[in-house]
Design a protein that fits this description.
single chain; 520 residues; alpha/beta; Rossmann fold; 7-stranded mixed beta sheet; 32% helix; ATP-binding; ABC_transporter-like_ATP-bd
C-alpha cells in the first residue's frame, strides 16, 4: 500500500541573507524570509526595524548590498526597478505616497501601468474597481485636492489594477475608517482565495491577528522570530516587536477643566477648490486640561478644519477663532504660535518637515518666526546654530527618536521616528493649545504610546489639546470629550464616558443627535 505524503508548497518569494547597508549603518542584516502562495504574511517590527528598507529592495527601489531574492521557481532574480518588480508580478502600496499632486487620479494610475491604455479606459477601470472595493475615487480629481485617506485609496486601487501575484502593503489601513478597512480585508481574503500572496506591514496588531496566516518579526534589522499571530495576543506581539513590555497609556487623575483656551464660534469656510470640503457653522470650546477628540471619515473637512485652526488659511471672521479669549481668525500660523499655540499637520513629509533638511534645520524653520528668542542667545549665527542643534538633540532624547547620526536629514528617519520628532518639536514649546491631525499615523505601538502619553501629560499640565484622528482606539484612549465631523459639520461634543463605537459611528455617518448621550 502506498501512502501519499503532503509536502509544503514551494515559496512564491524567498529572501536569503538579504542585507542593506547605508555607509556604516546596516538597515537590514542577513534577512531570511519565505512567503507562500495564497498566504497573508505579516512583517512586524518597531519603527526603524528595517521593514520599509526590506520591502523597498523587494520592489526594486533599493539595491541589496548582499544576499539574494528568489522568485516563483525562477531562482535568484535581480529586481533593479519598480517596473521590473511589476513585470514579475509584485505590486506595492507605500506608506508614504508616490503621487504627483498636479495630476489627476487617473493620470497617476496610468504612470504605473505597463500597457498602452487610454486615460478614459483607465478612469473607468479605476472607478469600477474602487467602487467594488468600497474605496470610492473620482478619477478626474487632482491629487492636490484630496485628503490623505483618499490618496491612500489611489495607491491601493493602483496596485490592484496591476493584478499582482504578490502585493506588499505598508500600513494600508492607517488612514482608513473601520468600515473601509473591513472592505479592504474582504479584498485581501479574495486575493488569498485566488492563490495570490500578501506581505502585510501594520502596527495595528488586532488587524494582524484577524487576517494574517504567519508573521515574521524584525528588530534592529534582523529577524528575531516568527509566529502564528492568531495564537498570540496584541500584548505578546508588541513584546516580540520591541523586546520588552509596551507601556500602556495612563491618564492622569482628571481635574476640573480650567479656562477656555480655544473657542470656535459659528465658523463657516467656503470650499477652496471643487474637491475640498466647506466648513459649515462649526462651534467648539476646549478648556485647560481637556483633550477633544474629533473623529470622521477621510475627506469630511478634517484638513480644512485643521487649516482654519492653525492659521495656515486665515478665515474671514476674525472673531470666529479665539485663543485664550483673543480673536485670531485672520492671523497666520506664526502669529498664533507666538500666542501659545502648537500645530502638527497630518502629512509628515513636505508639510510638517522638509525631508532634505536636517532635524535641527527643520526645528529652526519651524521656530525662527514663531519663538520669542530661545535660539537668539548669541550674537553670531554659529552660537545660534549650536543652540538649535542642542534643542533638536533634547527633543530626540525626550521622545526616544531613533536615528543613524547626530543630526540626520528628516527623510533618513523612519515614519514613526520622524513623527515623534515633529510632535516633540511642538511639545518642547509647552503650548497652551495643541492641535494635532492624525498624531500616530503609521507608527508602532511603542511610539504611539509615547505620543499619546505626551499629549495626556500636556493636558494634565493645563493645556487644551485637540486631536483629529481616524483611529477610534486612539480617540477613546486619550480624549476627555469626543465629537465627529461629517460633510463639513461638527456634531455636538459629548463626554467620552458616554460614547462607544456604535454612537461615534452614527456621528461619523452624519447623525448629529444622540438622545442617549448628554451634550458636553
Amino acid at each position: 500500500m502506498s501512502h501519499s505524503i503532503e509536502t509544503a508548497p514551494s515559496p512564491l518569494l524567498s529572501v536569503r541573507s538579504l542585507t542593506k547597508r547605508f555607509g556604516t549603518f546596516t538597515a537590514c542584516d542577513g534577512i531570511d524570509l519565505d512567503i507562500l502562495p495564497g498566504e497573508i504574511h505579516a512583517l512586524l517590527g518597531e519603527n526603524g526595524a528595517g521593514k520599509s528598507t526590506l520591502v523597498k529592495m523587494l520592489f526594486g527601489v533599493l539595491a541589496p548590498s548582499a544576499g539574494e531574492i528568489r522568485w516563483d521557481g525562477q531562482g535568484a532574480v535581480e529586481i533593479a526597478t519598480p517596473a521590473a518588480a511589476r513585470r514579475l508580478g509584485i505590486g506595492m502600496v507605500f506608506q508614504h505616497f508616490s503621487l504627483f499632486e498636479s495630476l489627476t487620479v487617473a493620470e497617476n494610475i496610468a504612470l504605473s501601468l505597463d500597457e498602452a491604455v487610454s486615460i478614459g479606459e483607465i478612469a473607468e477601470r479605476a472607478r469600477a474597481l474602487s467602487q467594488s472595493y468600497g474605496l470610492p475615487l473620482d478619477p478626474s480629481a487632482h491629487v492636490a485636492d484630496l485628503s490623505v485617506g483618499e490618496r491612500q485609496r489611489i495607491e491601493i486601487v493602483r496596485a490592484l489594477l496591476q493584478n499582482p501575484k504578490l502585493i506588499i502593503l505598508d500600513e494600508p489601513t492607517s488612514v482608513l475608517t473601520p468600515q473601509e478597512a473591513d472592505k479592504l480585508f474582504e479584498t485581501l481574503e479574495k486575493l488569498r482565495a485566488e492563490g495570490r500572496s500578501v506581505l502585510y506591514i501594520s502596527h495595528r496588531l488586532e488587524e494582524v491577528q484577524r487576517i494574517c496566516d504567519r508573521a515574521t518579526v524584525l528588530r534592529h534589522g534582523k529577524v528575531t522570530g516568527a509566529c502564528d499571530p492568531r495564537q498570540e495576543t496584541p500584548a505578546s506581539l508588541a513584546r516580540m516587536m520591541v523586546g520588552a513590555e509596551v507601556n500602556s497609556v495612563a491618564p492622569d487623575v482628571a481635574a476640573a477643566p480650567g479656562a477656555e483656551l480655544l473657542v470656535v464660534r459659528n465658523l463657516s469656510v467656503a470650499a477652496r477648490t471643487p474637491f475640498s470640503m466647506a466648513l459649515k457653522d462649526i462651534s467648539l470650546t476646549v478648556r485647560a486640561g481637556e483633550i477633544l477628540g474629533l473623529a470622521g471619515v477621510a475627506g469630511n473637512g478634517q484638513s480644512e478644519l485643521f487649516d482654519s485652526l492653525s492659521g495656515e488659511y486665515a478665515v474671514r471672521d476674525h472673531d470666529a477663532v479665539l485663543l485664550a479669549g483673543r480673536p485670531v481668525g485672520r492671523f497666520g500660523i506664526n502669529r498664533r504660535r507666538l500666542m501659545g499655540a502648537g500645530f502638527v499637520p497630518e502629512e509628515r513629509h513636505g508639510h510638517a518637515a522638509v525631508t532634505g533638511l536636517s532635524l535641527s534645520d527643520n526645528l529652526l524653520l519651524a521656530r525662527h518666526r514663531s519663538d520669542r528668542g530661545r535660539f537668539v542667545s548669541g550674537l553670531f549665527g554659529l552660537v545660534k546654530h549650536r543652540a538649535v542643534k542642542v534643542a533638536a538633540a533634547e527633543i530626540c532624547t525626550a521622545m526616544d527618536v531613533r536615528k543613524s547620526g547626530d543630526d540626520p536629514v528628516a527623510g533618513a528617519l523612519s515614519g514613526g521616528n520622524l513623527q515623534k520628532f515633529i510632535v516633540g518639536r511642538e511639545l518642547d514649546r509647552k503650548p497652551a493649545v495643541l492641535i494635532v491631525n492624525q498624531p500616530t499615523w503609521g507608527v508602532d505601538a511603542g511610539a504611539a504610546s509615547r505620543i499619546r502619553q505626551a499629549m495626556i501629560d500636556l493636558a494634565a499640565q493645563g493645556s487644551a489639546v485637540v486631536i483629529i484622528s481616524q483611529d477610534l482606539d486612539e480617540i477613546f484612549e486619550v480624549s476627555t470629550a469626543i465629537a465627529a465631523i461629517s460633510e463639513g459639520r461638527l456634531s455636538k461634543i459629548y463626554p467620552s464616558a458616554v460614547m462607544n463605537r456604535e454612537k461615534i459611528g452614527l456621528l461619523m455617518g452624519g447623525l448629529h443627535g444622540l438622545e442617549s448621550a448628554d451634550a458636553h
